[in-house]
Amino acid sequence: MSVSLDNDRGLLEAELQSPEPPWMIDTDGSRGPRALEQLSDSDVDPAELIDLVLKLANTAPHFSTETAAAQLHLPLQIIDELLWQLKDDKFVEILGENGPFSYRYAITARGREEAARVMDFCGYIGPAPVALDSYRSMLSLQIRDQPDVSSEAIRAALSDLVLPESAVQVTELAVSAGRSLFLFGPAGNGKTSVAKSIHQAIDGEIWIPYAISVAGSVVQIFDPQVHRPVEHVSRAGGKIDGRWVKVRRPLIVAGGEMTIDALDLAYSPSLRYYESPLHLKANGGTFVIDDFGRQRIDPDALLNRWIIPLEHQIDHLTLHTGQKFEVPFNLMLVVATNLSVDDVADPAFLRRMGYRVHLDMPTPAGYRLIFERYASKLGAQVGENVIARLLERYRNEDRELRCCEPRDLIERVRDICRLHSVPFELKPETLDLAWTGYFGNM
Q1: How is 178-209 classified by DSSP, letter by letter?
Q2: Residue 11 has pLDDT above 50, yes or no
Q3: Which of 330, 391, 336 lies closest to 359, judged by CA?
Q4: CA 30 to CA 147: how far, in whole Å?
Q5: If pLDDT is split at 50, 70 and 90, which confidence band does 127 have?
Q6: Closest by alpha carbon to 344, among 356, 336, 332, 354?
Q7: How far apart are CA 368 and CA 366, in angstroms?
Q8: Are 225 and 253 in contact (CB under 8 A)?
Q9: What is the CA radius of gyration of the chain?
Q10: Whether the predicted pLDDT of 342 surpasses 60
Q11: Which of 125, 191, 319, 349 has CA 20 to 30 A from 88's CA?
């Protein structure tokens, strides 16, 4: 799901019309990356793969061809070719056979010296990286092949929320067009819930690399904290490139804890490789900037950081050596704030956002509907005068209605009933205690 503007669709379409890399059909009917058949097919410099095998050899007293292939996610024939090159250079030695077409190896003293030198430049040891161009092509092709999101799917994803019809229609437009969405309004009225619901409508699967290679440096893309691998994905008898992993389309929510550094490469001097920024991990999925304006950075600095990505669907990152490179920015961006729009966003930024939705406080009828829906979801009956009594209390205490409060009050009633081991019921006296525990004594 890409963020795009009409005057920039030509750039994206030109990229999508570039020659396709070799593909194959996975056994589950979806397209997947074809495995390397020989070293000359590699999209990264073979010298990088040789260094990767050497670093792995330096981590154990001995290892086998299969062990190296499993840890580096490369085919046996590629690993065999790399190990024979290291053997010819006297960096590893053969200890004996380990089975058909497999040997046991150990690193030599000369190999340890070379491994130490290589580790000084890059300490990454893991699944072999893919080339940056391969990552760009793969992402673009998958976005091109992504089916359109239907109006029915979007409305179904939003069905648990009580929203004005105008808000639903604008959200539909943003999601179906793949444009960014700016949500604003008072706190507690569903902005974060709308953002997460949007992701349900575009949820699916996508192939991402474990890591990419940029000028000999490694940038780790796969993050087990945010990427959920698809279980039981067929590798079609080893014909699928193991350097890629199929995941659910990612959803990343960055709140007030986000810093400007989280949007740049994170280099580890001790590990000597890079962790990708949040929006690079979110490519192909949804990136939500929640509580915009409350981050530990000036809103203008954050806005300026997004101008180029929103305009051209690319971002520029910088290695610690100073070398810059381009990465794709193909995701559904949702920005949510409860602050005044004039205080956190200038007109230049708002022009680049695809759509805007104002989520205001609910009406008494909307509050009643939210309360009844949530109670029904939990199997609780709502007495005839319970909600009227609550609404009267809001008026007496001059409190504003918020969409999140029916859920919060009902959950506190559940806490009370659980504490006293009584059936879960929404009684006036129990709601009075829930009210006091939630809002405090007046």
Answers
A1: T--EEEESSTTSSHHHHHHHHHHHH--EEEEE
A2: no
A3: 336
A4: 13
A5: very high
A6: 336
A7: 5
A8: no
A9: 27
A10: yes
A11: 125
| CATH classification for the domain delimited by 6-12+130-358, as one of 3.40.50.300, 3.40.50.2000, 1.10.10.410, 3.30.2270.10 | 3.40.50.300
In the block, residue with structure tokens 């104002």: 358
Q: How far is the CA of 401 from the CAs of 87, 296, 364, in angstroms?
A: 73, 29, 8
CA distances from 226 to 6, 105, 185, 247 (A): 31, 36, 28, 10
Pair of tokens at residue 145: 């092949």
pTM for the predicted model, two decimal places:
0.86
- Give the residue from 14, 10, 12, 6 showing the smallest Cα distance to 351: 6
The residue behind tokens 């379409």 is 13
Token pair listed for 214: 């940029």
Each residue's pLDDT tens digit, 282-294: 999 999 988 887 7
pLDDT digits (tens, 9 = 90+) for 148-195: 888 999 999 999 899 999 999 999 999 988 888 989 999 899 888 999
The rounded distance, in Å, linking the Cα atoms of 163 and 345 is: 24
- Phi, psi of 403, deg, nearest 5: -65, -25
Q: How many helices (H) and strands (E) in the chain?
A: 17, 19
Tens digit of each residue's pLDDT (9 = 90 or more) over 40-55: 989 999 999 999 999 9
Instruction: Please give the torsion angle defined by the CA atoms of residues 52, 58, 64 and 70, in that order, rounded to the nearest 10 degrees.
Output: -40
Return the DSSP state at 261.
G
Neighbours of 24 (CB within 10 A): 14
Which tokens belong to 46? 């073979």
**Whether pLDDT at 407 is above 60:** yes
Q: Give the architecture-level CATH label for domain 45-121.
A: Orthogonal Bundle (1.10)
Token output for 414: 């559940």
- Its sign, for the CA torsion 49, 50, 51, 52, is positive
